[in-house]
């Protein structure tokens, strides 16, 4: 039943050697890995204008130089990540780069930030997309949280089906969004050139503005940098590309950078030219496309694809999170379960964990996750900064041919990233202080997990000097708890005789009468196995059995035997039949697991009715 | 931690031979077993007046003849249950009587009705008591459900501590309530005799009333019979009495009957004389004591003890439910767990089940359980009627000396009970139809459980002709699934060698490379145990292992060996460490339990860190 449902939802299982079929070609990879970065065009320009609007409409021209700053940073980041892709072709991104060049702890800081960040990405993007949907259909408004959860569940399912198939579905909306924005930009510029656009809606560049400060411009710049979130996704997912993977990934990254640059600068320029001012009621994107097209087909097309890509941006998290979790788990910093490939060859545990964590966030914040955006941006720039720094150290250490130029690219990138982080913490401390707590906590958890795995590995290492073959066969003292004279006990006794010469039955009685009766019945049965009875005045089983085992241990130690307790276990035909049998057997097994040097043999008794 | 909390809440465990100390003396038994019956005086008279009020205030005088009818029925029921107590001194009440004289199905109908009824008693009484509390302190009103749940939890806890101790606590409020009502009646009659009471507030008995019908009077009579709920409790709890239990129980029952008769007739008479009319805002009891005392101390005393006894009426359910469940479980109609005595010698599973079921009802009905009262009354009169009928058959069958008179008592009782049931179904079908569904369903469940236990008992019965001693020792093929070369595998191999000459290790690999590597490593280890490798293209373990076991079974069957699978199981130091190890071991054990003739031996490996 469960199995059939699973097959229906995620498709038939794939063999391990079908793995290469699941690799992405560049066109699909661009769609699947860029939706997060490209979707930020929908809110990045608005973030800049929001800060400038605190001064005056006259200050809006500053969005042009600020956008140029963001483009420079974008270029530096793209160049830098191209270098990272070639240097670390097995993926892992910021985690790998920081770990190898700066040390484990910096790697874990980068990895921990990113993990939390992907969860935030999913929650924030899906909530934003849902808001767009419920704005279009106000009747759905009371169901915001339900819709958001449904969308996350849907994306989780698509990812469990496997990368290629989900990419096919996800490619269309991403390209439609790009198409929509390209049309907006072309038509907008055409109108400007043909004089159909307003010429007086904007102040000219260089107009002096009262009250503007360098600090404010930096704040606007850092807000605009939220358009750069998602740029790192491709460098984490190199193993998903077709061979030659690094070359394909680098090419895809460059394409994404160019598209992002064109869309971002186009939207910023048109918003400036058309004099769009941010408003609480309508997004800048919406106002801009309304100015250009009016409320016609193209306006709704832009709005629809924007809503769609915001939801799909969540998918970037689903591509990157499981791979990062895999890398951390491989290094024993996360539970080993994250290294297992599921039926459809995706790292299903990572996919499911991400889906559940983001649904949890959506429920807690009741779908209003906007307040998480600054936290999310900080979580992105921490690993950006660390990977740039890591690359700087790498160039200094290895000094390959022509490293000076590469060193400068990363140095510039690192400085800008640290600056943006500093601005975030200074200007938005109230919204980002939480990262000062959760990043150290996550790193601490990584270390705890690592310590446990290392300790276990040490305990599991065999001593080469002892050969199993040479150890003498030991005796085995078998203990059979019995509660009456039944076929189950008979079966247990027969099995005990087949594994040992030395078996003892033990009966725990709640009254002296029941003990006397059992003794008599046992004698009449003539099993050849000795019965020992124990009186339990408090009607418990575990305590008297434990005491009895301790007493038997001495006997076993004298003959250097191992000890085995035989536990019959009913296996019922129907699930509810289980309620009709005391589950004390399971409690006893749970107790015996903790007793030193005792083996537990379960003799299943399959009930026929 | 859990253990300490348990000790604190329910006290230290008692030895089985301390059981006789827990028996009830008559004074305590009267309190603990009568609170349900006596508390019905608080609403019984009101139920009669509510029906009469649908005609006119003039009809109120009919409450006197109706009350006489109720008293006659009460007398018949008390006489009848005295006969039942002597005939069935081991308790069980309606269930036992109906089962023995009418057949199993009638017994189960009576038992099932009563079980459900006790749950309703608890929910209804506690809700009513909570309403009284929140009426007194309106600030608590939003917390009605919380308070009701808390009260049920408290009563459950008192009962888990054991009968005598809870009786000591519960005796005072019951006797205070009786005292309060006796004072009301004495002062009321004194006022009437001394002429301080109004003489014109009532119409004289026999005044003709327009529109009155026989049907309506029957309806009022059946409503008044709700005051008789709880009368059967004593006959179910005979084993809780001190010896001679039947004599003590019969005496206590008679005392309760007299008290109930005095209080009921007194309240009905005074309500008639003072001309009290039922009102939605204030109970009849409240109006009556206000008329007699004014809003002075005695008024509040009556109200407080009424509220208290309503809550404590729930306790009758807690005394009777576990005993009835014990009787049904002993006859294999309910899960065996209900026969186990807990730490304090009460049938804790019954107590806990009742507590949880009534909390469930309170939550579902949000503390407004008044609508359940008719359902509850029907649930009482079904077993009443069946036990009377059972006694009729008993007298006819056994014909003891002087049976004619006894036969007439039960015949009269049975006829009245059937009449009341008929009236209930005719006049209140909308509120009681549910019992037509749940009674058959409960009886069906009883039968299903019985069928399972009987089938199991048959399967467990040993064949006397086969002596365990004489069976030849069999071989044992041991299979050890291994995932690498570790100390855990080493331990498993050593154990395997100690129980059999015939051991095979099996490795399930996800890739051909890992299989080749394992083969090589195993050879170098020199264990003397053969390794068989299985390739699992879909990365599953259960399916390939199952196929392998089937193949091995043929080998085992040829040498008529038993089969044992050795499963190492990590036992972690800290609970969260468990999350760091794949729990596939447990899944495999769960699978192996269902495989025929395979024994599972768990080799616990206690991790040191």
Mean model confidence by pLDDT of chain A: 84
Rg of chain A from C-alpha positions?
33 Å
Distance between the termini of chain A: 21 Å
Strand order of the largest sheet of chain A: 3-2-1-4-5
Shape of chain A: elongated
Number of distinct helices of chain A: 22
Strand-pairing-aware structural class of chain A: alpha/beta
Helical percentage of chain A? 55-70%
SSE order of chain A in H/E notation? HHHHHHHHHHHHHHHHHHEHEHEHEHE
Strand content of chain A: 5-15%
**Major beta sheet summary of chain A:** 5 strands, parallel
**Biggest chain-to-chain interface with counts:** A-B, 83 and 84 residues
Assembly annotation:
homodimer
Counting DSSP E segments of at least 2 residues, the number of strands of chain A comes to: 5
Low-confidence stretches of chain A: none
Main location (chains A, B): membrane
Transmembrane segments (chains A, B): 48-79, 106-128, 140-160, 172-193, 205-228, 249-277, 297-324, 345-365, 371-393, 405-426, 432-449
Organism (chains A, B): Croceifilum oryzae
Membrane topology (chains A, B): Multi-pass membrane protein
């Amino acid at each position: 039943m469960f199995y059939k449902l699973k097959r229906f939802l995620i498709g038939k299982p794939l063999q391990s050697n079908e793995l290469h079929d699941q690799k992405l070609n560049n066109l699909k990879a661009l769609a699947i890995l860029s939706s997060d970065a490209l979707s930020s065009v929908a809110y990045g320009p608005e973030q800049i204008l929001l800060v400038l609007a605190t001064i005056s409409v006259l200050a809006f021209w500053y969005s042009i130089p600020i956008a140029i700053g963001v483009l420079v940073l974008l270029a530096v980041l793209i160049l830098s990540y191209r270098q990272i892709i070639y240097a670390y072709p097995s993926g892992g991104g910021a985690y790998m780069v920081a770990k190898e060049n700066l040390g484990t702890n910096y790697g874990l800081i980068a990895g921990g930030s990113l993990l939390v960040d992907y969860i935030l990405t999913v929650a924030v993007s899906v909530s934003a997309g849902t808001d767009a949907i419920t704005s279009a259909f106000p009747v759905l408004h009371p169901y915001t949280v339900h819709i958001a959860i449904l969308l996350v569940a849907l994306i989780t399912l698509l990812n469990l089906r496997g990368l290629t198939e989900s990419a096919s579905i996800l490619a269309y909306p991403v390209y439609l969004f790009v198409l929509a924005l390209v049309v907006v930009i072309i038509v907008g510029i055409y109108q400007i050139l043909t004089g159909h656009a307003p010429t007086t809606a904007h102040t000219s560049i260089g107009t002096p503005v009262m009250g503007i400060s360098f600090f404010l411009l930096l704040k606007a710049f850092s807000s605009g940098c939220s358009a750069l979130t998602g740029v790192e996704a491709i460098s984490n997912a190199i193993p998903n590309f077709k061979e030659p993977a690094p070359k394909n990934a680098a090419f895809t990254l460059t394409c994404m950078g160019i598209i992002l640059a064109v869309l971002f600068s186009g939207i910023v320029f048109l918003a400036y030219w058309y004099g769009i001012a941010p408003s609480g009621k309508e997004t800048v994107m919406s106002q801009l496309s309304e100015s250009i097209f009016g409320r016609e087909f193209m306006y709704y097309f832009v709005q629809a694809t924007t809503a769609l890509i915001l939801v799909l941006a969540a998918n970037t998290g689903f591509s990157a999170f499981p791979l990062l979790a895999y890398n951390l788990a491989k290094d024993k910093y996360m539970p080993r379960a994250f290294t297992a490939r599921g039926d459809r060859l995706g790292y299903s545990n990572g996919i499911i964990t991400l889906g559940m964590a983001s649904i949890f966030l959506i429920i807690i914040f009741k779908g209003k996750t906007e307040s998480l955006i600054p936290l999310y941006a900080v979580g992105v720039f921490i690993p950006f900064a660390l990977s740039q720094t890591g690359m700087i150290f790498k160039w200094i250490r290895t000094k390959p041919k022509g490293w000076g130029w590469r060193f400068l690219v990363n140095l510039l990138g690192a400085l800008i990233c640290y600056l943006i982080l500093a601005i975030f913490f200074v200007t938005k401390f109230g919204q980002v202080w939480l990262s000062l707590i959760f990043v150290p906590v996550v790193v601490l958890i990584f270390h705890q997990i690592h310590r446990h795995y290392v300790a276990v590995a040490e305990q599991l290492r065999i001593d080469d000097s002892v050969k199993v073959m040479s150890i003498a066969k030991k005796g085995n003292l078998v203990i059979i708890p019995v509660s009456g004279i039944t076929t189950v006990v008979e079966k247990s006794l027969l099995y005990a005789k087949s594994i040992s010469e030395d078996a003892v039955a033990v009966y725990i009685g709640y009254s002296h009468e029941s003990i006397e009766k059992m003794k008599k019945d046992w004698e009449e049965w003539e099993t050849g196995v000795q019965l020992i009875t124990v009186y339990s005045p408090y009607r418990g089983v575990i305590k008297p059995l434990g005491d009895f085992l301790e007493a038997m241990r001495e006997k076993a130690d004298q003959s250097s035997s191992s000890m085995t307790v035989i536990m019959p276990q009913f296996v019922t035909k129907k699930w509810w039949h289980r309620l009709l049998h005391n589950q004390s057997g399971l409690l006893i097994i749970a107790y015996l697991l903790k007793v030193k040097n005792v083996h537990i043999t379960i003799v299943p008794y399959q009930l026929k009715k």
